[in-house]
Amino acid sequence: MKAAVGDRLVVEGTYNHESRRVGVIVGLRHPDGSPPYVVRWMDAEHETLVFPGPDARVVSRQERETEFAELYG
User: Fold this and answer.
1) pLDDT tens across the length of the chain (73 residues)
2) For residue 37, which of 45, 22, 26 has the smallest C-alpha distance?
3) Dihedral of CA 42/30/53/10: which sign?
4) Longest dimension (CA), the chain
5) Distance between CA atoms of 6 and 35, rounded to whole angstroms?
6) Which H/E stretch holds residue 70?
7) Could you count the other beta carbons within 10 Å of the beta carbon of residue 42?
8) Distances (CA, A) of 9 to 20, 41, 66, 68, 72
9) How far apart (Å, rounded) are the C-alpha atoms in residues 30 and 15?
10) Burial status of residue 46 (CB atoms within 10 A of its CB: 0-12, 13-18, 19 or more)
């Protein structure tokens, strides 16, 4: 997993009662973009150091822009 500042980290809930969490990557600890990441969570507006597990994925800024352009032309 590689990321850049500004990418989103999406962590899927692993149990039925847990919801998906989405955060913006605001800091990297390694220049190659490997974890851990400093993430500002959108639902709680606080930052944490995250070591993503198998239920997490990175959505790049470019992926979001491409998806937006496809949906809204």
Assistant:
1) 999 999 999 998 767 677 889 999 999 999 999 999 999 999 887 999 999 999 999 999 888 777 766 777 6
2) 26
3) positive
4) 36
5) 14
6) helix 61-72
7) 11
8) 10, 9, 17, 17, 23
9) 31
10) exposed
Residue type, 5: V
CB 7 within 8 A of CB 20: no
Side-by-side strand order, sheet with 8-11: 47-50, 37-41, 21-28, 8-11, 56-59
* Structure-block tokens of residue 54: 């198998």
**How much is the pLDDT for 2?**
95
